[in-house]
Amino acid sequence: MEDFYYTTKEENQAEFVEKHSRFIGYCKPISTEQEAIDFINEKRKKHYDATHNVYAYSLKNDFIKRYSDDGEPQGTAGVPVLDVLNKNNVVNTVIVVTRYFGGIMLGAGGLVRAYSHGAKIALDASKILRMEKCYNCSVTLSYDFYGKLSGLIPECGGIIDDSNFLENVIISFHIPINELGFFNKKLADATNGKIEVEVVNEDYFPM
C-alpha cells in the first residue's frame, strides 16, 4: 500500500461556453468501476440530447484507466479528460464532459483545450483530497490518563474516532503510519510506559 493518494472530496459540476458550444463537466469520487459506469450512464440518460458525453476515470486498485471520445475525433476528448486526472495524480474519480454543439467547429486543438478545461473546472469544483494511509488504533486506559491521551492524539497528528466510557476508557483513533512511532514515544513519556496502543488494521483517511 502506498502511503497516500489523491482523490476528490465530493460530486460536483461546472460549465462554460466556447464558440456557442456548451460544455458541462461532472466529477465524482468512486471506489469501483461499476460506480464509474453507473455515473456515466446516469449522465448519458440525463443528456440524451447532447452531441457528446465524453468521459474518463481512474481507479487506484488494479491501475484501471479508461476513457471515451464518444464520437469526437480520436484523441481530442477522452484523452484530454484523462490527462487532467493524471496530471493532478487523482484516482478513484470519474469525469464526464457533456457537449451541446453550438454550430461552430472548434478544430482538433480547440477540442483538446475545451475538454481539458471542462474536466479541470469540474475537478476543481469537486476539490482534490489527500488520502493518507493510517493505522486504526485502540487504547484502553484509566480515567486518570484520559485528559492526557485525548490531547496527545491530535498533537501527534491523529484523529479520535470514538471514546467508550466504561470501567475504563477505550479510545479508538487513526494516525498516519509515519507518526505512530513518535506517538508511542510521547505516550510512554506521558504515562511512564503504563499504556500500550493496539494497532487494529490499516486504512486510508483524509488528512
From TrEMBL:
Specify the domain of life of the species encoding this protein. Bacteria
- GO cellular component terms given for this protein: cytoplasm
Coiled-coil residues are none
Q: Which PANTHER family match?
A: IMPACT FAMILY MEMBER YIGZ, IMPACT-RELATED
What InterPro entries does this protein's entry cite? Answer: EFG_III/V (IPR035647), Impact (IPR023582), Impact_N (IPR001498), Impact_N_sf (IPR036956), Impact_YigZ-like (IPR015796), Ribosomal_Su5_D2-typ_SF (IPR020568), UPF0029_Impact_C (IPR015269), UPF0029_Impact_CS (IPR020569)
Q: What is this protein called?
A: YigZ family protein
GO BP:
regulation of translational initiation
> Where is the secretion signal located?
none
Residues annotated as domain UPF0029: 139-194
